[in-house]
Amino acid sequence: MILATRSRTSLLTLALIGTLGLAAAPARAAIGDMYITGDVSNTVRMYTGVTGSFLGNFTLTTNSPLSIDFGTTNNRVLVGGFTGGVFEYDATTGAYIKTYGPAVWQWSGIYRANGNVLVAETANDKIVEYDGVSGAFIQVFATLPGGMPSDMRYGPNGNLYVGLYGSAGVVELDPNSGAIITAWNLPPGSRTNDVEFLNGEILVTALGTNLVYRYDSTPAHNLLGTFGNAFWGNTHGIEISPHNGHIYVVDGVTAQLHEFDPITFAELNPTVLSPAPGDKIVDIAFRPAGEPTPAANTTWGRIKSLRR
Length: 308
Fold this sequence. Notes:
A hairpin with a 4-residue loop joins strand 9 and strand 10. The longest helix has 19 residues, at about 1-20. The protein is about 10% helix and about 40% strand. The protein is mostly beta strands.
């Protein structure tokens, strides 16, 4: 009788945990799930990569986060921002590790192949390299007068592409020397934010005009077309989904993630995130493979969201 009572009590406890979401371990994004930054709320939120269902906050920051970039092999993530420098976190637990650079406007950070970190020091028009272990300054990797560098991404050719928020352009840099290989300007009124690559094209998001520009990959970087949403007001991050190959674009005024067809560029879904964040959001990153993800870090709520 005592054993039966204890058994019923244990089952009741488990039921309450599932109903109330009182899991022993907090929900953590799995491989392929989405991380979304919010500069006004000082948050990095997590959403399922397939359905866009909210999982919880990855971490609360203090640097008004803009970009988010994962290391592909070191289980770490870099979060740039308006203030405080570029913060580095454990990609699994969200634990703070260290800060790169001074407490100024540093839009983004990205890992080099050697493990060091390149930081887009927006406030001072340069890309700076820091030691990936100690965080110590190594060198000014590239100087971009008047450029105000924003987000950065390595292209299929291995070169580093940097958005220029201040001069409305994009530069392609040698990944070893930092020398400029090619450079081009967006149409007047644009303020470059992010760069992505798709089927031989270069996709560039821009505030001001609030569009995504399509360029070819030739040295001339010919403009092929644009796409967007008429209600956009602060067009920011862009990513290609590892799940369906669709284009995902973050807009700060609609405060939503927008989904586009990669062939026709027609909008498929203007409200990917559920529920809507409710405040300005900036960047998106899908958590890459090649990092440890503890199987125990889940909840019944997350399992149900994957079925929606």
